[in-house]
Write a structure and sequence with these properties.
With 407 residues, the chain is mainly beta. Helices cover 8% and strands 35% of the residues.
């Protein structure tokens, strides 16, 4: 086994790539692979030279807690961001374990990539501090990625899952812009319900060019449209999701998990129910987390009159479809499932609507064109049209809703 382990660490799987698959090395370090990075921090802050068009990230998988908008504490599994913490040094293991323990985020830290990047993402499985009886492996599945290699796709039946105390460096080269998502694909229904999912999007290679659409110049675009029709001034990732509190309680209480009766009673946007959705700051962390923030992603949308706002909306819910709509302003849908809405002859298939319906694993790119004459101080709403989900469990006027505030 030692021979196989050393062979896997040293042999390129794809030209220019190395697969890290192993228990912790003998020197106690955690192997983070990132070109040009000497200390395993997955960045180049130590004075190293960053290769062009290269991005590195280091995530951990583990457990933690979040607080629902009505105050209920929920136990979760999740990912956290370890990028910037040196790992390939003598003290790296202790630092990584300290940072990654009870650090699960919901949703997972957003991943933002650029078209054509060489992306190295290391996942370290920290383990479950509150459930030491669990030895669950984990993985990262880049959902919708069209050029995925099986070994890096996160499916345990065709690729690799990462055992507790192990690290794996994934490699991606995203050549298609759009809104994707990522999640753990091991025991997917359980791990996704428990919170192992997050937003991921790829910015267009056309960014930086100037294109004029309807008299307005843009330099940022959702897709390589060639005409500026997907241009925007601001972007907001919004992940639809919901929790079954009984399932989460069973997970911390070591009870049989109620898969057959799974019923989500906490609908959320970016891991929060209203009014927490409009808090621009990370929520106060539960004391059970050791004061580590676990709900960092606000859903408050702000814009100025005349601006175009790109909403990168995704749904990774495992129990139901959701309809998300606007009140007082329409959405211009320009992309679906990381594909520009264009016909084979180039015909523009974008459309305006006040509501979109997404099932699990679907995404939509929608642009809010704020009229130039909008009065500052105006507030629009983005909310679920499934009105019974405008609640935090039994508490009304909450759930899947946020505000669009005009500066």
């Amino acid at each position: 086994m030692t021979t196989i382990y050393n062979y896997i660490k040293s042999v390129p799987v794809v030209t220019g790539l190395f697969l890290c698959l192993a228990s912790l090395p003998a020197n106690g370090g955690i192997l983070v692979q990132c070109p040009g990075d000497a200390d395993g921090s997955a960045d180049w802050a130590g004075g190293e030279t960053q290769p062009a068009n290269t991005k590195c990230l280091h995530l951990s998988s583990g457990d933690g807690f979040v607080t629902m908008a009505d105050g209920k504490l929920q136990y979760i599994f999740g990912f956290s961001n370890l990028t910037g913490i040196p790992a390939n040094v003598e003290t790296g293991t202790a630092d990584i374990l300290a940072a990654g323990s009870l650090a699960a985020n919901f949703p997972a830290p957003p991943i933002v990539l650029d078209e054509g990047d060489d992306v190295y993402l290391t996942l370290t499985n920290i383990g479950m501090l509150n459930r030491p009886d669990l030895f669950d492996p984990h993985s990262v599945h880049f959902h919708g990625f069209p050029q995925s290699s099986a070994i890096f796709d996160g499916l345990p039946d065709s690729g690799v899952s990462i055992n507790m105390g192990s690290s794996l460096t994934y490699y991606y080269k995203p050549n298609d812009p759009g809104t994707y998502m990522y999640h753990c694909h091991v025991e997917a229904a359980e791990h996704m319900q428990m919170g192992m999912l997050g937003s991921l999007y790829v910015r267009a290679g056309q960014n930086g060019e100037t294109h004029t659409y309807k008299g307005k110049n843009f330099t940022m675009f959702a897709y390589n449209d060639g005409d500026g029709s997907t241009g925007y001034d601001k972007e907001y990732p919004i992940q639809i999701g919901s929790f079954d509190s009984a399932f989460h309680d069973a997970s911390i209480d070591v009870q049989p998990l109620p898969f057959a009766t799974m019923f989500d009673n906490y609908p959320m946007l970016n891991g929060r129910g209203y009014p927490d959705t409009v808090n621009p700051d990370p929520l106060t962390p539960p004391v059970e987390n050791g004061e580590k923030p676990s709900q960092n992603e606000s859903t408050l949308i702000t814009a100025s009159p005349g601006e175009s706002v790109l909403l990168r909306i995704s749904n990774l819910n495992v129990t139901r479809l959701y309809t998300l709509g606007t009140l007082g302003i329409s959405m211009r849908v320009v992309g679906k499932d990381a594909k520009l809405l264009r016909g084979p002859d180039g015909k523009d298939l974008s459309y305006k609507t006040s509501s979109i319906t997404l099932g699990g694993g679907e995404s939509t790119d929608a642009i809010l064109d704020i009229p130039a004459g909008t009065t500052p101080g105006t507030t629009y709403f983005l909310y679920t049209k499934n009105l019974n989900y405008l609640s935090n469990d039994a508490e009304q006027f909450g759930g899947m809703m946020t505000e669009i505030r005009i500066n």
